[in-house]
Amino acid sequence: MGLVVQKYGGSSVADAEGIKRVAKRIVDAKKNGHQVVVVVSAMGDTTDELTDLAEQVSPIPAGRELDMLLTSGERISMALLAMAIKSLGHEAQSFTGSQAGVITDSVHNKARIIDVTPGRIRTALDEGNIAIVAGFQGVSQDKKDITTLGRGGSDTTAVALAAALDAEVCEIYTDVDGVFTADPRVVPKAQKIDWISIEDMLELAASGSKVLLHRCVEYARRYNIPIHVRSSFSGLRGTWVSNEPQGDQQVEHAIISGVAHDVSEAKITVVGVPDKPGEAAAIFRSIANAEINIDMVVQNVSAASTGLTDISFTLPKTEGRKAIDALERAKGTIGFDSLRYDDQIGKISLVGAGMKTNPGVTAGFFEALSDAGVNIELISTSEIRISVVTRADDVNEAVRAVHTAFGLDTETDEAVVYGGTGR
C-alpha cells in the first residue's frame, strides 16, 4: 500500500477524546498497510484565543513574535496526538513545520511555501513510524525565522507534503462529511458531492467555500494531488477532488457544482477618478504595493459632463484600513475626489463547468435573486462562475433561494455538521 497524508482540523482534535478518536483512525490506516503522515491544526479555537491574547498585550503585535506565539497551538496538538498513538502500541514522531522541511518566504502571518525538503519525515517513515507534522507553519528561507501560512494554512501544509512525498492521496478531515452544494450551516438541504473537478473546487474555494482553502486546491492542481475531503466524526466516504474521477464516479460534469458565499470582504469605491489612461493602474499599483489582494473590480461609465468615473473593488475586511491609508497617500498623484468604504456586504457565487454550455443559467440565477428580493451591487463572471455582491443581511436568504432554484436541494437526509467551525 502507498503513502497517505491525512490532515485533521481544529474541531477534530478539539479535546482529549477527539485526539484519541483521531489516533485510532490513524492507527487503522497504518494497520491497513499504509505509510501515514499526519498534519494537525491547533486544538479547537486555540489560534483565535492566542490572537486575542496577543491583541490584549499589544494593539499591533509584531509579525515575527505573533508567528512564534501562534505556532505553539499546532505543536501542542502534534505532541498530544503522538502520545495518543504510542498509547495504542504504534510508534509516532512529531515534527514542527521547520523540522518537516517546510521552507517559506519571509512574509510573517501569511507566508508562502517555497520548497519542501522532508528528509526527516522520510527517515521516520522508513523506520516504521507514523509522522505527525504541525500544520500552518514553516521556516523562512533567508532568516530562518518561524513563519505562519495564514488562516487555514494546515490544508496547504498537507497538500505540499503530499506532493513532496509523492503520496497517493491527501485526506482532509473536517467536521462535515465532504464538499456540499452549499454550506450546510446555511442550507440544511445541501447535497454532498461525490466527486468535483479541481477547477470547480478552485472557484468554490475562491468564492468563499470554507471546507478547503484556495491555496491548498491550487497546490493540488499544480502537482496533481488527489484530495479526499472526509469527516473525522464518521466513517462515510467523502468527496474526491481531482483532475479525473476516482473509480466509478460520474465523468460528466453536473451543470451546477454548488453555491458559495463569503461575508469576509469589504468594498471600496474610489469616487471621481479622471477617466484617462493610467488612473486605474495607479490605483491598483498603490494597493499592490501595500501587499493587498483584491477580488472583484467594477468601473462605471464616466459622466460626459465631468470626465470622471467611479471604480469599486472588493478586498478582505482585515485589509480595509491598510487599503484606505494606501489610497489616501496616493490621492495627490491619482487625483480622485473621495473614498467610500463598506464592510456590510456579502458575495454569492454560482459555480459549475456545465454553465458555459447551458443557456439560461445566468437568467435563472438573477431571477432567483429577484424573487428573493435581493438587490445586486456588483457582478463578476468567469467561464464557470457568476458572482454578485449584495447586502450582508441578504446573503443567507440569497444562497438558499439560488440553491433551490437550481434543483440542488436534497429530498432525503439533511447535511450533518459535527462540529461548529467548518474547519
UniProtKB/TrEMBL annotation:
This is Aspartokinase. Signal peptide: none annotated. Catalyzes the phosphorylation of the beta-carboxyl group of aspartic acid with ATP to yield 4-phospho-L-aspartate, which is involved in the branched biosynthetic pathway leading to the biosynthesis of amino acids lysine, threonine, isoleucine and methionine. Residues 268-344, 350-423 form the ACT domain. It comes from the Bacteria. Pathway: Amino-acid biosynthesis; L-lysine biosynthesis via DAP pathway; (S)-tetrahydrodipicolinate from L-aspartate: step 1/4; Amino-acid biosynthesis; L-threonine biosynthesis; L-threonine from L-aspartate: step 1/5; Amino-acid biosynthesis; L-methionine biosynthesis via de novo pathway; L-homoserine from L-aspartate: step 1/3. It catalyses: L-aspartate + ATP = 4-phospho-L-aspartate + ADP. NCBIfam families: asp_kin_monofn, asp_kinases, PRK06635.1-1, PRK06635.1-2, PRK06635.1-4. Its EC number is 2.7.2.4. The lineage of its organism: Bacteria, Bacillati, Actinomycetota, Actinomycetes, Kitasatosporales. Belongs to the aspartokinase family. PANTHER family: ASPARTATE KINASE (PTHR21499), ASPARTOKINASE (PTHR21499:SF3). Keywords: Amino-acid biosynthesis, ATP-binding, Diaminopimelate biosynthesis, Kinase, Lysine biosynthesis, Nucleotide-binding, Transferase.
